[in-house]
Amino acid sequence: MxxxxxxxxxxxxxxxxxxxxxxSEIMPYPMGxxxxxFFGWVNSPPTAIGIVAELLxxxxxxxxAGGDHAAIYLERATVRWLMEIxxxxxxxxxxxLVSGGSMASLTGLATxxxxxxxxxxWNARREGAQAGAQMTM
Length: 137
Prior knowledge:
The protein is mainly α. It contains five helices and no strands. Helix content is 47%, strand content 0%. The longest helix has 19 residues, at 101-119.
């Protein structure tokens, strides 16, 4: 039966059954980004270490929105290492890791808006975008 047309299961299934169904109905039909001729895009290829890293991250279920735990320090160290690799100053600098390209673009736009408003003598975050002159992107 086609998965899209499958009815809602009437009851739960044992984990082994779910894994068997995943193996037979999902795994044979990947996106294709694991192919040697897939040269990258937003979706990274499923390398063995990447799969393990995703498993470990999901196991920890971290949130870097705040707190005092390992994921916060790992993010700070990773950002500092990336700054060093790119030759950016690390003293007094900071950064964050985000979930993907769209979030990175949105974060970059918000940062640029805040920087531009401060340069022009107002605070877009506190006063709202309507408080200053119209911004052009």
